[in-house]
Design brief:
Layout lengths: L2 H25 L5 E3 L4 E3 H17 L5 E3 L3 E3 L5 E9 L1 H6 L5 E8 L2 E9 L4 E6 L3 E4 L2 E3 L11 E6 L7 H14 L5 E4 L3 H9 L5 E5 L3 H13 L3 E5 L2 E5 L2 H12 L9
Helix pairs in contact: 1-2, 5-6
Length: 263
């Protein structure tokens, strides 16, 4: 196997192992955690990560790793792992089944591998640079014949956005720009889950603004490898299932008074 194929296999093993722990805790209504106005830190995050990290570290002890709970592990070489044991912690804590365990790997700073596992529904997504996105072992594409006015768009805002007034204002402007253009706008609490749905064409667009590192690589790799239409400027990333939908969304958003579009 190539380096990326081997890395993908380890990433898959890690997310399935972490997901099994999440599923066990979800089924017994484990809502232990620290709740704040903007986030939740669940005990399940730590428990899942403790099962995922040894898999990665045993296979690639010299690779640098960022784990959401444990932090940075130094290493060397062109690959860097990002471990997100529970994407959708707020959903998990609220008893909603829309959450996942996720791992992404950067090669020289660019997304190269991503693995996402939804433990409640036993759904798996794998993406590898140049090899597409696979859902349940079958390659999928961000294709849809749904019109713009009937489309569903997922908004992905990083955890720091609501905490910073200027970013919160710009995020609200982005949301306002998309409302009314499409049938439904979802504020995502589980970006990797919505990225998977987008890669299958089940939703028609993603708008990402100042994303968290744990989800950014998954979103961008899934969109690229699923053949989506993409535009990006600074912290704003917009992907759609077709150029027409992308053009409508991009035009509406760029007509807002956002600092990133000021000359």
């Amino acid at each position: 196997m190539s380096d990326l194929e081997t890395i993908e296999a380890i990433a898959r093993s890690a997310v399935v192992t972490g997901g099994a722990e999440l599923r066990r805790r979800y089924r017994v209504d484990d809502d232990e955690g620290t709740y704040t106005a903007h986030d939740v830190k669940a005990a399940a995050d730590v428990a899942a990560e403790e099962r995922m990290l040894p898999i990665v570290r045993a296979a690639f002890p010299d690779h640098p790793v960022f784990a959401e709970e444990a932090g940075e592990f130094d290493g060397s070489g062109p690959f860097r792992w990002i471990v997100d044991p529970l994407d959708g912690t707020n959903n998990f804590a609220a008893g909603l089944p829309t959450f996942a365990s996720a791992v992404s790997v950067l090669h020289e700073g660019e997304p190269a591998v991503a693995a996402v596992y939804l433990p409640v529904t036993d759904e798996r997504y794998l993406a590898r640079r140049g090899a597409g996105v696979r859902y349940g072992g079958v390659r999928v594409f961000a294709e849809s014949d749904v019109s713009v006015e009937a489309a569903t768009v997922a908004l992905i805002f990083g955890r720091d956005v609501p905490r910073q007034p200027e970013l919160a204002r710009e995020a609200a402007a982005i949301a306002d720009a998309t409302n009314g253009l499409v049938k439904r706008v979802c504020h995502s609490w589980a970006p990797t889950v919505h990225s998977g749905l987008f890669a299958r064409g089940r939703i028609q667009a993603l708008v990402q603004f100042h994303p968290d590192e744990e989800e950014r690589a998954v979103t961008e790799l899934f969109a690229a490898e699923a053949g989506a239409a993409i535009r990006q400027r600074g912290p704003l990333f917009v992907a759609a299932t077709d150029e027409a939908t992308l053009e409508v969304l991009w035009t509406a958003i760029t007509n807002q008074e956002l600092e990133l579009f000021e000359e």
